[in-house]
Amino acid sequence: MREFWVSSGHQLSRQNADGTLAVTPELLMAWLARPELAPPREACDAERALHASLMADPLRTVTAADIAALADPDARENWSFFIRFRDRLTAAPSIEAAYVELARAPRIDLPPLFLDQLAHLILRNALDACEDPFTLRAGELFFRAQKASVHDGVLTLADADLVEEIEKGRAQMMHVAPLTAMLDKDELDVMDDENAWTYWSRSDANSMAMNLGGNPHAREGLANAIAAWVRHLAGEKVSVEPLAKMEDKDWRWFVGLDAEGTRIGNALWRGESLRAEDMERVIALFRLTFASDKRVDKRVRGRPVYLILGMGADRTVRMKPQNLVAGLPLVDARQAKESVQ
What we know:
By secondary structure, the chain is α+β, with helices and mostly antiparallel strands. It has 3 domains: 6-126, no CATH class; 133-209, no CATH class; 221-339, no CATH class. It has 14 helices and 11 strands. It has helices at 25-32, 45-56, 64-68, 73-91, 95-104, 112-126, 133-139, 160-169, 178-184, 216-234, 259-269, 276-280, 323-326, 333-339, and strands at residues 14-15, 21-22, 146-151, 154-159, 189-190, 208-209, 238-243, 254-256, 282-290, 305-310, 316-317. It has a 4-stranded mixed sheet with strand order 7-9-10-8, sandwiched between helices. Strands 4-3-11 form a 3-stranded antiparallel sheet. It is globular, with a radius of gyration of 21 Å. 37% of the residues are buried.
């Protein structure tokens, strides 16, 4: 079995008997070493001391007084978020359980960074036996924003942070659509059947673009990643298939895979007419079918669930995999038992 996504921290976590992950001091130390938490040059002595003490003992108790002693208000906020994040993880039976609890909460009171870290780690665990590089590349959407561009007539996605980094180095070409120019200049490799094997050596570089609009393997890869995510977190076996368009006149349920997908899906649900530019923002559509209806809401039994992925006005794709946890029409075991009696 080949290694991938080392930066997820998968090797630093501990696997429970049921295949879920438990947080370890080593994993917390890796997160503490991230630039978002490492004290900057101008940090006060109290922040440096707090960081050093946590690197020595990541599970040590941190009090409100410890946070209040930090001079910078932004630092106080950041550390409050991290300690809350850490304490939730250590209190939960698994990292997956903590994520599900967060996803189903009325309001997520943690920065997106922490959710992305969890999604990265959890999907790495869910795809542990995966041998398909297209699925792994598509899985990056779960935890990394993408920049969309039409290249050679097809929709292509590239890592948003990498695109921004390259843009800064070639400001003289800003009169050309940046991502399109990069692809034309071969500054980014687009994954295809011939070069897909190279993903294994560069999975943490996020350096391969994804031909979502033209290569069926890319769309199938995203469908596979979604199915693995649902199976791992919801315990439900599902089939997910890409669609060119939705022809179902009696559709009952949808999940927006991002803010735009949710907005467009809600408008369709209300029977509103959409502008052409709204429809152009839909970059992927899927049909999800449950293998068993035992836990499916009775209003949706026997019917598929449609998944809508969109992009923002700035052509950025920010997938929200937590919507697949909170948005699917599943009831808990007790409710499922009552519904069939």
